[in-house]
Design brief:
134 residues, 5 helices, mainly alpha
């Protein structure tokens, strides 16, 4: 299992799962957090958040394709995005925001834990691939 986990295929699959987790969490944020939990957030805030997420997802897809083609820069970007997803999207939300998405329970809790787990696993897998530990 460790050899697959640190292989290019493993890093790409786990990073893809982390990307799906980010997408799910972002959709919940737009639907519940920006509309119900933060009622003063207007259309401009929602539009800005959507553009930021679309840019991150586009960068992530580029990194997946670049890494699959053998570019080390793709793996480096995947590592950075996995750290951002795991630590900022998951851990920071668990530590800083209480209660987490009260209007989206239990989906919000599952999405945040999913960000933490998949982002961390993706970062570890890509790190193994980058620094040759597998």
């Amino acid at each position: 299992m460790r050899s697959w986990f640190g292989s290019l295929d493993g890093a790409l699959v786990i990073s893809g799962v982390a990307l799906l987790s980010l997408l799910w969490r972002s959709l919940l944020d737009i639907r519940y957090v920006l509309t119900e939990d933060v009622p003063e957030a207007g259309k401009g805030t929602t539009a800005a958040w959507t553009l930021i997420i679309v840019a991150i997802i586009g960068l992530w897809i580029w990194a997946l394709l670049a890494a699959q083609a053998g570019a080390r820069s793709g793996l480096t970007v995947l590592f950075a995005l996995a750290i951002i997803t795991g630590l900022l999207g998951g851990l920071a939300s668990l530590l800083a925001f209480r209660p987490i998405m009260p209007s989206a329970r239990p989906m919000g809790d599952i999405a945040i834990w999913s960000n933490l787990v998949t982002g961390s696993l993706a970062a570890i897998s890509v790190a193994f691939r980058l620094w040759g530990r597998a």
